[in-house]
């Protein structure tokens, strides 16, 4: 069965979703603007109308820190796969802290049921990422594994500790392990192209590639320059000009799919493609908690459409696309993710070590055995 | 230090005594003997000594197989629960496992030979590179199966190892022709398949082998000829080179050159790296693998 967030053009699916949200007392967010027909099966929301406008304050069903988190997601204040997962886990810790088991109910079952409307609300604010999905699965499993004779305080403490260790192992320590392996691959005198943030200390030059409308490369550039690394900043349109100088390309990933495809910021597959044409090795850095069992071969079926108004730019006082809604045949497409096939990726650096792209199912299998 | 010297002596004696043995097998035999004679008081000390011994052997013979074989040996013997309070009992367990490991890998070449020779059809023309004992075993098995085939061997400079291979093949009454290293492109249209050995199989599924292998792989890809690699499983190593430069220097040059020469840029490397995209299949004692399956097997071996 297809998940509901890729069936927006199917009225039956939409009705089912509306009914479910009504039951959970979560507001339904409406789509905004004309959608390009190839992507009409996805949601497209405007940043100017967050779902928090539609709920009463103080919210009765939804915990206030979840409301805050939802607002931060929908406005783009918290962005990036790791940041979103960490914020989600911290918020869940708060929720667990404030939770009290109602009489005649068991914590292990009731808490999971309480979390469902929160998750629906958050996915209305911004579709869940693969890493967030894995984190939620983990928490739900931990909650349902709490034995029934466990006292409430003890159970809460255990869950808090679980969440803390998840964040520590899978996110913080994982990125340190990845940096360690990545450093081995950087030799003196290398010229490295980054589309993501990386920490290291060898003598090398970095070229930061950036793209509109998010321009996230500027933050990476700031941090690199502060460390005294020689940097060059280009927009993605200058890619084929700059690639002959590059010795290695480092990319980040939003998720790694079971068939070896890499899901990442839009523009990543373009960089990988051009790098392959120039025979430059492409390395992807990704923590194992972002590995998901989904299989995808294209960027159309499951993606995210961001606010189309972001594409409007004002130069010299003139914004040409300001009235794009009035032109009937014009659609603005602001895609967030794209999918890179494994033939373009030479190496994936994870906290378990360096693996080829095709070995993702092996890691998933090993992880399932561990659990 | 004294033990180190004796170890190297034993290793060299093994190679002299049995020239047909793989250098990694000889290394593991020496390590087993070292383990038997070791006098440490603690498990940690024992393991320290073993690691030192492996390093000493790597200095003598810088091939990838010695390094990978040594590490796998150490992992295999320490994989059991060493919870006996008595050190000598622990050591006996380790020695027993070491002997088991040695027996297993001594049989691996035979297993590979049995697997691969069925891929050689009657009337085939085979191209191979330099001198590999595993390829020899495969061709021996195929000849014993009454198959008729011709072999082209590259000369493989700078040590002309190809000529030695040709001699061994002639002794088996297999028609063989030695070609220049530069003639690989010329001869590729005549051959049906290419079989090479490997000094090391890396995590990506690529192989490290005598210099000239990469060229042969590129040519065979251009002519759409299958490129087969035969290797025992103890040659699987936890390296992940991205290109030729990324292969560590300690494998590229022989041990003597590494010790004496200052500027390695003036030396010719003895090995090169063939990426997995150019390899059709790998024949190992673990089975017939595609390059992407190698990582799977490596994870199983090392984790």
TrEMBL record, chain A:
Q: Which GO terms describe its molecular function?
A: guanyl-nucleotide exchange factor activity; translation initiation factor activity
Which GO BP terms, alphabetically?
Answer: animal organ development; central nervous system development
Q: Which InterPro entries match?
A: IF-2B-related, IF_2B-like_C, NagB/RpiA_transferase-like
Question: According to its UniProt record, where is this protein mainly located?
Answer: cytoplasm
Instruction: List the GO cellular component terms.
Output: cytosol; eukaryotic translation initiation factor 2B complex
**Which Pfam family is one of this chain's hits?**
IF-2B
Q: Where in the cell is it found?
A: Cytoplasm, Cytosol
Oligomeric form and interacting partners: Component of the translation initiation factor 2B (eIF2B) complex which is a heterodecamer of two sets of five different subunits: alpha, beta, gamma, delta and epsilon. Subunits alpha, beta and delta comprise a regulatory subcomplex and subunits epsilon and gamma comprise a catalytic subcomplex. Within the complex, the hexameric regulatory complex resides at the center, with the two heterodimeric catalytic subcomplexes bound on opposite sides.
Q: What family is this?
A: Belongs to the eIF-2B alpha/beta/delta subunits family.
Q: What does this protein do?
A: Acts as a component of the translation initiation factor 2B (eIF2B) complex, which catalyzes the exchange of GDP for GTP on eukaryotic initiation factor 2 (eIF2) gamma subunit. Its guanine nucleotide exchange factor activity is repressed when bound to eIF2 complex phosphorylated on the alpha subunit, thereby limiting the amount of methionyl-initiator methionine tRNA available to the ribosome and consequently global translation is repressed.
What is the name attached to this protein's record?
A: Translation initiation factor eIF2B subunit delta
Organism from which the protein derives: Cyprinus carpio
TrEMBL record, chain B:
Matching InterPro entries: eIF2B_alpha/beta/delta, elF-2B_alpha_N, IF-2B-related, IF_2B-like_C, NagB/RpiA_transferase-like
GO CC term, one of those recorded: cytosol
Instruction: Name a GO molecular-function annotation.
Output: guanyl-nucleotide exchange factor activity
Query: Cytoplasm: present as a keyword of the record?
Result: yes
What keywords appear on the UniProt entry?
A: Cytoplasm, Initiation factor, Protein biosynthesis
> Is the Membrane keyword given for this protein?
no
The record's SUPFAM superfamilies line, in alphabetical order, gives: NagB/RpiA/CoA transferase-like (SSF100950)
- Record localization: Cytoplasm, Cytosol
Q: What does this protein do?
A: Acts as a component of the translation initiation factor 2B (eIF2B) complex, which catalyzes the exchange of GDP for GTP on eukaryotic initiation factor 2 (eIF2) gamma subunit. Its guanine nucleotide exchange factor activity is repressed when bound to eIF2 complex phosphorylated on the alpha subunit, thereby limiting the amount of methionyl-initiator methionine tRNA available to the ribosome and consequently global translation is repressed.
Family, per entry: Belongs to the eIF-2B alpha/beta/delta subunits family.
What is its quaternary makeup? Component of the translation initiation factor 2B (eIF2B) complex which is a heterodecamer of two sets of five different subunits: alpha, beta, gamma, delta and epsilon. Subunits alpha, beta and delta comprise a regulatory subcomplex and subunits epsilon and gamma comprise a catalytic subcomplex. Within the complex, the hexameric regulatory complex resides at the center, with the two heterodimeric catalytic subcomplexes bound on opposite sides.
The name this protein goes by in its record: Translation initiation factor eIF2B subunit alpha
UniProt organism field: Cyprinus carpio (Common carp)
């Amino acid at each position: 069965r297809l998940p509901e967030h890729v069936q927006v053009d199917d009225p039956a699916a939409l009705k089912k979703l509306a009914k479910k949200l009504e039951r959970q007392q979560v507001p339904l967010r409406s789509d905004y603007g004309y959608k390009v027909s190839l992507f009409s099966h996805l949601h497209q929301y405007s940043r100017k109308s967050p779902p928090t406008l539609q709920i009463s304050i103080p919210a009765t069903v939804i915990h206030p820190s979840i409301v805050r988190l939802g607002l931060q997601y929908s406005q783009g204040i918290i962005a990036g796969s790791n940041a979103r997962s960490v914020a989600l886990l911290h918020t869940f810790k708060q929720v667990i802290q404030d939770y009290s088991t109602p009489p005649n109910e068991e914590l292990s079952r009731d808490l999971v049921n309480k979390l469902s409307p929160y998750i629906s609300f958050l996915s209305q604010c911004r579709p869940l990422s693969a890493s967030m999905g894995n984190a939620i699965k983990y928490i739900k499993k931990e909650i349902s594994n709490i034995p029934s004779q466990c006292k409430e305080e003890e159970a809460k403490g255990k869950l808090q500790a679980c969440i803390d260790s998840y964040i520590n192992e899978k996110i913080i320590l994982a990125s340190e392990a990845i940096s360690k392996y990545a450093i081995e691959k950087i030799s003196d005198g290398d010229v490295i192209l980054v589309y993501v943030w990386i920490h290291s200390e060898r003598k090398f030059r970095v070229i930061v590639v950036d793209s509109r409308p998010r321009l996230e490369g500027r933050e990476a550039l700031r941090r690199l320059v502060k460390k005294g690394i020689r940097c060059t900043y280009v927009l993605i349109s200058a890619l084929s000009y700059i690639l002959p100088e590059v010795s290695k390309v480092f990319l980040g990933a939003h998720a790694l799919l079971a068939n070896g495809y890499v899901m990442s910021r839009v523009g990543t597959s373009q960089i990988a493609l051009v790098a392959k044409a120039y025979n430059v090795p492409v390395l992807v850095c990704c923590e194992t908690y972002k590995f998901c069992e989904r299989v995808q071969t294209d960027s159309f079926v499951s993606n995210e459409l961001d606010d189309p108004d972001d594409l409007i730019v004002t130069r010299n006082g003139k914004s040409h696309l300001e009235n794009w809604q009035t032109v009937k045949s014009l659609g603005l497409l602001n895609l967030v993710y794209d999918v890179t096939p494994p033939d373009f990726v030479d190496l994936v650096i994870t906290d378990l070590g360096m693996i080829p792209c095709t070995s993702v199912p092996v890691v998933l299998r090993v992880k399932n055995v561990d659990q | 230090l004294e033990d180190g010297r004796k170890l190297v002596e034993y290793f060299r004696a093994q190679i002299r005594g049995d020239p047909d043995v793989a250098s990694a097998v000889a290394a593991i035999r020496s390590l087993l003997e070292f383990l038997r004679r070791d006098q440490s008081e603690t498990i940690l000390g024992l393991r320290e000594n073993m690691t030192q011994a492996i390093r000493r052997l790597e200095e003598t013979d810088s091939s990838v197989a010695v390094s990978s074989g040594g590490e796998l040996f150490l992992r295999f013997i320490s994989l059991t629960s060493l919870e006996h309070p008595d050190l000598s009992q622990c050591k006996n367990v380790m020695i027993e496992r070491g002997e088991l490991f040695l027996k297993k890998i001594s049989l691996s070449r035979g297993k590979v030979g049995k697997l691969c020779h069925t891929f050689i059809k009657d009337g085939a023309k085979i191209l191979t590179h330099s001198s590999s004992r595993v390829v020899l075993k495969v061709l021996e098995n195929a000849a014993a199966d009454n198959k008729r085939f011709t072999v082209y061997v590259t000369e493989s400079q700078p040590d002309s190892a190809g000529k030695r291979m040709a001699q061994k093949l002639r002794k088996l009454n297999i028609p063989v022709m030695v070609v220049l290293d530069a003639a690989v492109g010329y001869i590729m249209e005549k051959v049906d398949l290419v079989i090479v050995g490997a000094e090391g199989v890396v995590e990506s599924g690529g192989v490290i082998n005598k210099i000239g292998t990469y060229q042969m792989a590129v040519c065979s890809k251009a002519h759409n000829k299958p490129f087969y690699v035969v290797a025992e499983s103890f040659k699987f190593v936890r390296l992940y080179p991205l290109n030729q430069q990324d292969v560590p220097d300690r494998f590229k040059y022989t041990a003597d050159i590494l010790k004496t020469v200052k500027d390695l840029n003036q030396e010719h490397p003895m090995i090169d790296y063939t990426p997995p995209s150019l390899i059709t299949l790998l024949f190992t004692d673990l089975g017939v693998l595609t390059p992407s399956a190698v990582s799977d097997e490596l994870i199983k071996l090392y984790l």
